[in-house]
Amino acid sequence: MPKLTVFAAGSPTPAFDRPRPDRLVRDNPLRTTHEHFVAPQGDLCAGVWACEPGAWNIDFAPGKDEFFCVIEGRLRITGSDGAAAEFGPGQAGVIPAGFRGLFEVLEPVRKHYVVLERPC
Q1: 24 belongs to a structural domain
Q2: How would DSSP label each residue in the chain?
Q3: 36 in a structural domain
Q4: How many CB atoms lie within 10 A of CB 82?
Q5: Which residue range(s) make up the domain with 42?
Q6: CATH number at residue 78
Q7: What band does 24 get if pLDDT is binned at 50, 70 and 90?
Q8: Residue 54 located in a structural domain
């Protein structure tokens, strides 16, 4: 039987990365991902993501959607159309499949995330 995933009860090994050099806009922030859940099919994952201040261009794949909720810190996402939104603690959003724009971490941030990836 599948088991309930309780983030507070787990301590997954963190994965560290930085934005790809060709997408980097400002600084070179360290990003830390604690992946708490991966569906058996591999199409859904959830966890906690943290990042230092910086900015980079994002280009979501056609089948990839991300829900997030900021735990602490502040970030801004600006679409290629120029529309921008800022998120702070307790605020949530969805980055839809095919989204292109700028991702800026204004203050060190931590967020819960859920990513769904579907074949296109």
Answers
A1: yes
A2: ------GGG--PPPEEE---TTTEEES---EEEEEEEE-TTSSEEEEEEEE-SEEEEEE--TTEEEEEEEEEEEEEEEETTS-EEEE-TT-EEEE-TT-EEEEEEEEEEEEEEEEEE---
A3: yes
A4: 8
A5: 15-117
A6: 2.60.120.10
A7: very high
A8: yes
6 falls within a domain: no
Token pair in block for residue 10: 């787990």
In the structure, what pLDDT confidence band is assigned to residue 17 with cuts at 50, 70 and 90? very high
Report pLDDT digits (tens) over 55-93: 999 999 999 999 999 999 999 999 999 999 999 999 999
Say if residue 9's pLDDT is above 80: yes
Residues 86 and 109 sit within 8 Å (Cβ to Cβ): no
Rounded (10°) CA dihedral 100, 106, 112, 114: 0
Q: Do residues 62 and 119 touch, judged by C-beta distance below 8 A?
A: no
Name the token pair of 109. 């941030």
